[in-house]
């Protein structure tokens, strides 16, 4: 059958009596395709849902490669996607989210990456009384702010109302929204549990409604759990549902905060943006005391990200690079990067060979060197280790 024949059959297909067909196959396991009710012409007799599915069906040969991603911040945030920025308390998550909102709204380059200007709404559900100061510190900000408590789960979900409001603002001038920031996830969960899969599924459903209704990228500000090494707080189904994950960490000695892309659907991970929070004075209160807030100030990425590796660490990285190139495996799992990894035990054994990383004659001595090297490489964000597997982190 030719491609044209298949398309014609799809176009003129009508509903098949599926219950009867399935019943025949269940009672007669030897039934062949000959016993199935044949397709008949007359596509106009299809039920509405079947017509919608038929209209959405695309022949595989009609697909073409998409080489240009429609982005807001290239390599970081794509249009119409869902992302999460997360980190521990007081690491400056909201300051970074505001900085992104400001740069996207103004169309300004961010973190050395290209930016496509877009209309932004910032939902400050956890802004507090000082949120206005944070916005006022920005130079000529140009985005909308909604500073109200809002629930996006359960029967009290405001997802429909929020979408309608954004559609109204779009229709009355300025065009559609390209980014909505929800700060924070815990404040829009209502009374539901972020650790429960059904409640997270409900949240994702509502986020999808907002995304479809407005066309906007939805960015969620979130917290780490008790064990920061296990990633964002709450049920793992959230990470599975999002397109982009950005993790924040702070160097307590230098005060430098690093934002790193740790998940990117169909794209590279490892992009990093290093910055400090610079205190600025907004004015004086009635007692004459200074009123301050903070702004994101990028650091010299070459200096902030520079790590002086020991000879042993460089050898260990070289071994890992070779193992990944020769037998690295990409494991599809929401907790893992979409890049090749190798078993931690295999990398360790390769490094413990005499002379590979350490010149120590005894295995215990080489083992101590490996543990030190592994710790240094993890601290420098050069490798990622999870569930007894090791990845080489990809940097921009």
Describe the structure.
The structure is a single chain. The longest helix has 18 residues, at 197-214. Helix content is 34%, strand content 20%. The protein has 13 helices and 14 strands. The chain is globular, with a radius of gyration of 26 Å. Helix 5 links the parallel strand 4 and strand 5. It has 396 residues and is an alpha/beta fold. The chain has helices spanning 3-12, 18-27, 48-56, 93-106, 131-136, 159-171, 185-188, 197-214, 237-241, 301-304, 311-327, 344-352, 363-379; strands at residues 71-73, 77-78, 82-87, 120-124, 144-146, 179-183, 217-223, 244-250, 257-264, 272-284, 290-298, 341-343, 383-386, 389-392. A 9-stranded mixed β-sheet has the order 5-4-6-7-3-8-9-10-11. The chain has 3 domains: 3-62, no CATH class; 71-304, 3-Layer(aba) Sandwich (Rossmann fold); 311-392, Arc Repressor Mutant, subunit A (Orthogonal Bundle), CATH 1.10.10. The two termini are 48 Å apart.
């Amino acid at each position: 059958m030719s491609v044209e024949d298949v398309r014609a059959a799809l176009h003129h297909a009508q509903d098949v009596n599926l219950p009867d067909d399935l019943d025949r196959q269940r009672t007669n396991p030897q039934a062949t395709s000959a016993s199935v009710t044949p397709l008949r012409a007359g596509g106009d007799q299809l039920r509405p849902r079947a017509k919608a599915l038929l209209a959405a069906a695309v022949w595989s040969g009609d697909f073409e490669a998409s080489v240009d991603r429609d982005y807001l911040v290239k390599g970081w945030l794509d249009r119409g996607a869902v992302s999460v920025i997360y980190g521990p308390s007081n690491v400056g998550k909201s300051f970074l989210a505001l900085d992104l909102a400001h740069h996207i709204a103004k169309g300004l380059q961010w973190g050395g990456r290209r930016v496509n200007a877009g209309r932004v709404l910032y939902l400050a559900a956890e802004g507090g009384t000082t949120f206005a100061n944070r916005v006022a510190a920005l130079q000529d900000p140009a985005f909308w702010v909604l500073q109200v408590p809002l629930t996006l789960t359960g029967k009290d979900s405001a997802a429909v109302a929020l979408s309608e409001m954004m559609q109204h603002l779009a229709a009355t001038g300025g065009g559609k929204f390209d980014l909505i920031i929800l700060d924070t996830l815990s404040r829009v969960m209502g009374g539901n549990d972020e650790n429960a899969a059904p409640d997270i599924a409900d949240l994702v459903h509502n986020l999808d409604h907002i995304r479809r209704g407005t066309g906007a990228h939805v960015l969620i500000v979130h917290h780490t759990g008790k064990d920061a090494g296990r990633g964002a707080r709450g049920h793992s189904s959230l990470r599975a549902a999002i397109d982009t994950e950005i993790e924040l960490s702070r160097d307590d000695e230098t005060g430098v905060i690093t934002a790193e892309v740790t998940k990117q659907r169909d794209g590279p991970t490892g992009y990093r943006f290093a910055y400090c929070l610079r205190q600025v004075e907004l004015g004086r209160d009635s007692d004459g005391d200074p009123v301050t807030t903070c702004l994101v100030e990028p650091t010299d990425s070459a200096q902030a990200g520079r790590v002086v590796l020991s000879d042993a660490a460089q050898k260990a990285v070289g071994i890992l690079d070779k193992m990944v190139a020769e037998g690295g495996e990409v494991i599809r799992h929401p907790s893992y990067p979409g890049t090749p990894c190798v078993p931690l035990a295999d990398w360790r054994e390769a490094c413990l060979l005499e002379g590979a990383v350490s010149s120590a004659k005894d295995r215990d001595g080489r083992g101590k060197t490996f543990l030190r090297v592994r710790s240094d490489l993890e601290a420098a964000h050069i490798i990622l280790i999870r569930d007894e597997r090791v990845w080489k982190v990809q940097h921009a």
